Amino acid sequence: xxxxxxxxxxxxESATLAMATKARELNSKGIDIINLxxxxxxxxxxxxxxxxxxxxxxxxxxxxxxVDGYLELREAIxxxxxxxxxxxxxxxQIVVSTGAKQCIANIMIALLDPGDQVLLPCPxxxxxxxxxxxxxxxxxxxxxxxxxxxxISADDLSKQITSKSKVIIFNSPNNPSGAVxxxxxxxxxxxVLIENSHLYIIxxxxxxxxxxxxxxxxxxxxxxxxxxxxxxxxxxxxFAMTGWRLGYMAGPVEIVAACKKIxxxxxxxxxxxxxRAAITALLQPPSEIQYMVQxxxxxxDYLIELLSSxxxxxxxxxxxxxxxxxxxxDYYGTKIKGKTLNNSQDMAMLLLEHAHVATxxxxxxxxxxxxxxxxxxxxxxxxxxVKNISEILK
Length: 394
Ligand code: PMP
Ligand code: GLU
Fold this sequence. Notes:
Strand 5 (165-171), helix 8 (183-195) and strand 6 (200-204) form a beta-alpha-beta unit. Helix 5 packs across helix 9. The chain has a seven-stranded mixed beta sheet, sandwiched between helices. The chain has helices spanning 6-10, 15-28, 47-58, 71-85, 99-111, 126-134, 154-160, 183-195, 253-266, 272-283, 290-307, 344-354, 379-393; strands spanning 34-35, 94-97, 117-121, 138-142, 165-171, 200-204, 229-234, 247-250, 323-324, 335-336, 339-340, 357-358, 360-361, 371-374. The chain is built from 13 helices and 14 strands. The chain is of the alpha/beta class and 394 residues long. It is globular and about 60 Å long.
């Protein structure tokens, strides 16, 4: 019998966090790495949220909270879901967790038995497959390509569904591609989901507000799907609060109660100060954070313009999130700095070591032809990064 469980041995390290760690380590050794790896807003948390957190400390919020979060916060989340998404939930249909990441982990534990199948429209966020592995579920990719705008169609979906399929995870706006499904696209996909009543849908909407034009559409607003859709959202991206660790889920009472039970055994209710601040954040209209969205949009356009000078970087303009996901496969088979580039990992390592730019390879997102660059960074950093990259790839 080995020390570690098979599930943990099979579990890969988070590729996004691994690259961010590598960049930090190199920076601490005095090598100036431009970090376009981790997806994290580079803004400060807005002042009105910070003020609310400070007030709550002074008001002596310090004790354990209800496992599913303060009632006042769950009411604020219901208010937000109705205001922004026209979704009607009651506070007993909400669980607040330590980031959207924990929400997804709770849901996967609640729904999956060993051997169940998880469907992942490709490209997908790295932790979905890892969490499936941890639950001994099998994950299957539903492929897409740059030609389909990194989105799957209803046909692509119906081809992959089997009797073992239990969960499908949609993420729009998408990490890593930035693709946003329109209402019409989701309505076509919904028809297939409605026909397959054994499927549960996780709708990861963490980038909801980082959207540059295609109106956000939640699959939970399709009436026939509401009873088997779980919405996941959080404060990390929209409010520049990644380190505060606050996410939430909304869904059918039975699944929500199971997630609450799981969380009660694992971590209890999340941080009390972050919860008080989240009430303030969610009661404000999304217009309060538009200045960050506008800045991201400007940087997106700037980075696309800069990268257009590098041959072999095929890009589609993303409608949301803060990532570019260029197809760089034209470089595969070429030799640069004494090494033949065979895949996206080779490209990411070349750029880290020789251009001092940290990116994330497409492979752990299910697209080995691509590379992810986060543009949640200043224009100066983006400029320098592209200059370095273009010198290496010349
Ligand atoms: N979903 C997606 C698609 C993400 O990119 C992330 C990374 N922040 C999360 C969920 C988790 O977010 P957090 O745990 O910070 O709320
Ligand atoms: N979600 C962000 C990313 O993809 C943060 C890191 C993580 O949790 O994966 O970079």
